[in-house]
């Protein structure tokens, strides 16, 4: 393997071969012992794309992970959630192999296993599979026992003699697993309200600074630009702001813009076109449309209400 080569892992059987363990007992779902896997690491690095979901519960994780283009933080967390067709990479240091004794489980579920069930579509709504989440989920001892219990139930069921009920029983366990995980992630993010409020303050300061400057030459602020200044992904920032305020980053941008427009409309004699240009719009029609959608008044109607 050349440095930087991306392994393509298409099936659960491929996953077992890749990690040098015995073939799976079921072709579409498997629970792997994390302490027993031996992936083909060369030059202390490994990169792969998998065609299935994986939900992991790991201790003493080897190496530094990246999910997409973002680093993935395992410092306090135990659980991770990776979706199909995403690039995953890990960088190891020599000491990892001697000082760490990895343990835990990796539950791999191929999308074909979910075919014909409600989870085939609803699994996509869980945001913790996305690149936007960049940290492992922390679990208390009690929560960890709950997850381990569900893993055990899944394995027991696919190891049994399969019948017409097997798929739905396993899917029900997977839905329970995801519901608990969503609850635990919500708890984890709620404990960060202070930090999130600081991010919100920074977003508002960035918008204020932007609209205080020469907006006509800079153009309208974008979600991507604001997220980049905060070293966050746009998806993560919007999700965090929505959880805190009920509004996405784009909505915060629009609110700041409308506030500035109201000031200009009520305190200056500038035309609507001039105000639109000053706020970074190329076309005044776009400004007027946005203003009315947010205030239920046209810019001129708003101005007239002050006369």
Write out key terms for the chains shown.
alpha+beta, 5-stranded mixed β-sheet, 4-stranded antiparallel β-sheet, 13 helices, 48% helix, elongated
Task: Give a short synopsis of this structure.
This protein has helices spanning 12-18, 94-99, 119-122, 141-159, 166-190, 193-212, 215-218, 223-229, 234-245, 249-267, 272-278, 284-295, 299-304, and strands at 7-9, 29-33, 45-50, 53-59, 64-67, 70-72, 79-82, 87-91, 103-109.
Describe this structure in words.
This protein has 307 residues and is α+β, with helices and mostly antiparallel strands. It is 48% helix and 14% strand. The strands form 2 sheets. Strands 1-3-8-5-6 form a 5-stranded mixed β-sheet, covered by helices on one side. The protein has a 4-stranded antiparallel β-sheet with strand order 2-9-4-7, covered by helices on one side. The radius of gyration is 25 Å and the shape is elongated. The N and C termini lie far apart (74 Å).
